[in-house]
Design brief:
The protein has a five-stranded antiparallel β-sheet with strand order 5-4-3-2-37, with no helix packed on it. The N and C termini lie far apart (80 Å). The protein has two helices and 42 strands. The chain has 509 residues and is mainly beta.
């Protein structure tokens, strides 16, 4: 009788199902305009531990040995270049194990990578002497050329570093900070500086400070470095617990207090909020040091222009999480996506968009693919966000699929089309471009080079519109090289409803 009833009502059930599908489809445009849209676009088939957006518009994914002991033992070190336009992947010969090195863009757009893995961790129950031996670092350094898509070995650092931070200064020179040395011990305060003019490293004994591994540093408008407290754990129980401003002129340090949940900054991510001229930093999520499943939903905010900067609490994340991917968008908002509710586990499938002008979050569509440890999120030149990686603790699995997020602004109408943008632009100059729409804002977004939630490059600098006559738009380029370090940038023109153009790549000199 049940079967007969189902058969009899079949057309009705089918009609109701069709109606629900049609209703859902009718609401999808409204939903994407409000929340955005995630799409899985392919499989990189590589353990993306590092991701850098190149001036060619492609993305370098660096694995090295990829947290895989067998790859390390067999010297299988890999890198892959992903082309978002053609959605193709090209393997790159990788000379050393760059797994867990640091990186920063040089003024000419090449990527400096320094450090990496000398030896894998040996757990106590496997070690002959019954002790735990940490990972240990390499002194090697290489430069990746985006055009030839090849690595060039350059002079090695004087110290081995695993989990270091690299940061490019206004001078074009690059600082290397922290890391574990060749014995697995914290590099105790030794700072080195790379000079791209002659590809050499110099010890900076005058800049001795002890940092935890992968300390999150931001170059400020007055040339100081702001340490937000975000880090990757090693050494953070003893050092670097308090954020502050580091003055490189005299090695002094001004503490910045007031951060809620100050012991939960490991696996957090911080970012210089857009536009960079406002000198505000936000810190999202995090957890305690080690393999504790605790996490925080805390958002911390600090205004570095204050005479005595201090943290205030912003709105909480939708979930307490570690490893949140955090990406500046061209419309002066920030996407905070993914992460894990615990230590390398319990993936979060929530995303939010932070609005610095109102200090509020709005909901975004949730990613389908979990991203926790060893994951990255970057802004593409078409104003979408790409996410890579994830290395859950269970069985040391690694996520290799690529997922791309189209923010709500891509569903609000046609993009502006810009042309006539000069490829090379001098700081402090005034330039003219052509647009088929009225332009409200122009932003210079420095491309990301991110690993372990550390991205010292990411910033969006306002280039004020000073005149607009028909299709001609005149903008001013800031003259402060601390605010706008020499490099290749993505120039986005944004219309009155927040829709960005495709980026024009420009070289700021």
């Amino acid at each position: 009788m049940v079967a007969v009833a189902i058969a009899a009502n079949g057309p009705v059930v089918a009609a109701q199902a069709k109606s629900r599908i049609e209703q859902r489809r009718a609401h999808e445009p409204l939903r994407t305009a409000e929340l955005g849209l995630w799409e899985t676009v392919g499989n990189a088939k590589t353990r993306a531990v590092h991701a850098a957006v190149l001036r060619t518009g492609k993305v370098l994914l660096v694995s090295g040995s990829g947290n895989d002991q067998h790859n390390f033992d067999t010297r299988k070190f890999t890198s892959t270049v992903w082309d978002p336009t053609s959605n193709t992947y090209a393997k790159v010969v990788t000379p050393v194990d760059l797994f867990c090195g640091g990186h920063a863009f040089l003024p000419d757009g090449r990527l400096l990578i320094a450090g990496g893995t000398r030896k894998y961790e040996v757990l106590a129950n496997k070690s002959p002497d019954g002790t735990k031996h940490e990972f240990s670092g390499l002194p090697d350094a290489v430069i990746f050329d985006p055009v030839t898509q090849t690595y060039e070995k350059v002079a090695s650092m004087s110290r081995s570093r695993w989990y270091p931070t690299l940061l490019t200064l206004a001078s074009g020179k690059v600082l290397a900070l922290s890391g574990l040395d060749e014995n697995g011990n914290l590099v105790s305060g030794w700072t080195e500086m790379f000079d791209p003019a002659n590809n050499t490293w110099t010890d900076r004994a005058d800049l001795r400070r002890v940092w935890p591994t992968y300390p999150a540093m931001t170059l400020t408008a007055d040339g100081k470095l702001f340490y937000s407290g975000s880090n990757a754990g090693y050494g953070s129980l003893e050092v670097g617990r308090t954020p502050g401003l580091w003055d490189l002129s005299d090695n002094s340090f001004q503490f910045v207090n007031g951060l809620d949940d100050p012991t939960q900054t490991e696996t957090s991510m911080s970012v210089l909020l857009p536009p960079a001229q406002y000198q505000r930093v936000a810190l999202f999520g995090g957890g305690p040091v080690g393999d504790d499943d605790a996490a925080t939903a805390r958002t911390g905010l600090v205004d570095l222009t204050a005479s005595t900067p201090s943290w205030t609490r912003g709105p909480d994340l939708a979930e307490a999480k570690r490893y949140p991917g955090t990406v500046i968008l061209p419309d002066d908002t920030v996407l905070v996506t993914g992460g894990g509710l615990g230590y390398r586990s319990h993936d979060s499938h929530t995303a939010q968009i932070f609005h610095p002008d109102t200090n509020t979050f709005t909901d975004a569509a949730g990613p389908r693919i979990g991203r926790d440890y060893h994951s990255e999120a970057v802004l593409l030149p078409d104003a979408r966000v790409a996410t890579f990686g994830s290395n859950p603790l269970k069985d040391n699995k690694f996520e290799t699929r690529v997922e791309v997020y189209s923010p709500p602004y891509l569903f609000r109408g046609p993009r502006p089309t810009i042309s006539g943008v000069p490829e090379q632009i001098t700081v402090g100059s005034t330039i003219e471009l052509t647009s088929d729409q009225e332009i409200n804002n122009v932003r210079l977004v420095r491309p990301s080079a991110v690993t372990h939630l550390t991205d010292t490059e990411q910033r969006s600098v306002a280039a004020p519109v000073v005149a607009q006559n028909g299709t001609k738009v005149t903008i001013e380029i800031p003259k402060n090289a601390n605010l706008l370090p020499s490099d290749w940038y993505m120039l986005f023109a944004v219309n009155s409803v927040g829709v960005p153009s495709l980026a024009a790549w420009v070289h700021i000199v």
